[in-house]
Design a protein that fits this description.
Blueprint: H1 22-36, H2 39-50, H3 67-76, H4 89-102, E1 115-120, H5 130-134, E2 136-138, E3 143-145, H6 159-176, E4 180-183, H7 197-206, E5 211-218, E6 228-232, E7 236-237, E8 240-241, H8 246-264, E9 278-281, H9 285-288, E10 294-301, H10 305-311, H11 314-331
Parallel strand pairs: 1-4, 1-5, 5-10, 6-9
Antiparallel strand pairs: 2-3, 6-10, 7-8
Helix pairs in contact: 1-2, 2-3, 6-11, 8-11
The structure holds zinc ion (ZN).
The site of zinc ion has 5 residues, from loops.
């Protein structure tokens, strides 16, 4: 993106520029008088100008008069309606009727009363709490670390910063649509690390969420680019049983993937998923323990310079949040 083209100065068209000839300044005054004066005077000015009054005064200078005004003045030499007069009663009635016709009837908002849980991946404090986040937790099918630090860009922008920023933008969009939004955590002093992946899942379950999205960015090799959405595999073991969420989670994930591609312009990951932008996994506790439709989205690769340029750009993150939100709203029938 270029930043070296400054916009034209708003003062370049000033009518009081001292280097303009005296007659153009007088011309400007004549136009101002025509607009502001009573309509009979305006008519006189128009007639006078058209007759070539004033040395070198271009007739085009009269053009800014409102069209309806000059049309009346041209037709009969006097104006029957001021430029600010309201439209005819017929036109007003017509405009009013069309306005009410375009106002939708009070249909119930299909999103009202629905709950979305947003899970900002990792936590910026995890780096300082390696003992806590390395503790093993039960994910039903296996045991796994409570949480991980996440990745960073080569310049040090943390995945956990990215996920929280996108999640907050996402919350704003969803709440504006009337959805209730619950976060698994807000980081900050009350949550210096984690939550653990099993707790993240339980928060979505406890909220009886209609949709849960865990926001991430990947950390793989340079040249690997693009987004992918991770869907839960069908698993059963211990407290994990995803049979009921596999289908709806796929629908949610497909909606998010297509909308994310549309709003960001990013392509599906070129390093997994066979170009579909969709990957099924059976090893993520946050999916295995979920009883609600849930997906992860890996928005891009923080270790690729081109993807990192997107992920660190706030405007791009807004597009990412909008795409995820559009996918959720579509899934919920909004
Ligand atoms: Zn992650």
């Amino acid at each position: 993106m270029r930043y070296d083209n400054s916009p034209p100065s708003p003062e370049s068209g000033s009518s009081i520029s001292p280097d303009r000839p005296w007659y153009t300044r007088r011309s400007t005054l004549a136009v101002a008088a025509a607009v502001l004066a009573p309509t009979c005077l305006a008519g006189w000015v128009l007639t006078h100008a058209l007759a070539g009054a004033g040395p070198g005064e271009p007739q085009a200078r009269v053009a800014p008069l409102p069209a309806s005004h000059s049309a009346h003045a041209d037709a009969d030499g006097k104006s029957s309606a001021s430029p600010s007069a309201p439209a005819s009663p017929l036109a007003s009635a017509s405009a009013s009727a069309s306005a009410s016709a375009s106002t939708p009837a009070a249909a119930p908002n299909p999103l009202a009363g629905r709950t979305v849980v947003i899970d900002p991946g990792h936590n910026t404090g995890n780096f300082q709490h390696s003992r806590e986040i390395n503790r093993q937790v039960d994910i039903g099918t296996n045991r796994k670390e409570c949480d991980t630090t996440g990745t960073t860009t080569n310049s040090g922008y943390m995945e956990a910063e990215f996920t929280m920023d996108v999640s907050r933008r996402l919350r704003t969009v969803l709440e504006a649509r009337g959805l209730k939004v619950v976060f698994t955590h807000e980081a900050g002093p009350e949550r210096p690390w984690g939550p653990c992946i099993d707790e993240r899942a339980r928060i979505g379950n406890g909220a009886k969420a209609d949709a849960v999205v865990s926001v991430h960015a990947d950390g793989v090799s340079e040249g690997s680019r693009g987004y992918h959405v991770i869907l839960p595999a069908k698993v059963k073991g211990g407290s994990a049983d995803t049979a009921k969420i596999v289908g709806p989670s796929r629908q949610l994930g497909e909606r998010i993937a297509s909308n994310f591609a549309r709003t960001t312009g990013s392509g599906p990951a070129n390093y997994l998923g066979s170009g579909t932008g969709l990957v099924v996994r059976d090893d993520l506790g946050g999916l295995n323990l979920s009883t609600q439709p849930k997906v992860f989205i890996e928005c891009g690769n923080m270790r690729d310079a081109k993807d990192a340029a997107l992920l660190t750009n706030p405007q791009w993150r807004q597009k990412a949040a909008q795409g995820i939100a559009d996918g959720i709203v579509g899934f919920l029938g909004g």
